[in-house]
Write a sequence for this structure.
């Protein structure tokens, strides 16, 4: 998608929430 | 020790992305300190086999990072 929250940000040490549908 | 496909196969999909992200982030941070989180997030949408290849090949990583930065800047414009 092309919404404002894209792309999901990866932070080291924080569980990755970017791909909820895999 | 290097991350391998068999190591990834042993954990759930979400955790696979986490492991890949933890390895990729520091490498990307060296190239683009301010955008590293966003770039890593974009690259994690790719197939794990491609991400593993990027961990082994700086050239491949750099090329994908450049692509991601171009897309990111166009999106933010």
């Amino acid at each position: 998608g092309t919404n404002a929250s894209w792309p999901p940000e990866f932070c080291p040490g924080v569980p990755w929430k970017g791909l909820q549908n895999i | 020790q290097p991350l391998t496909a068999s190591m990834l196969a042993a954990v759930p999909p979400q955790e696979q992305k986490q492991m890949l992200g933890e390895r990729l982030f520091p490498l990307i941070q060296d190239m683009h300190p301010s955008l590293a989180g966003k770039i890593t997030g974009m690259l994690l949408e790719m197939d794990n086999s491609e991400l593993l290849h990027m961990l082994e090949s700086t050239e491949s990583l750099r090329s994908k990072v450049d692509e991601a930065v171009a897309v990111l800047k166009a999106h933010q414009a």
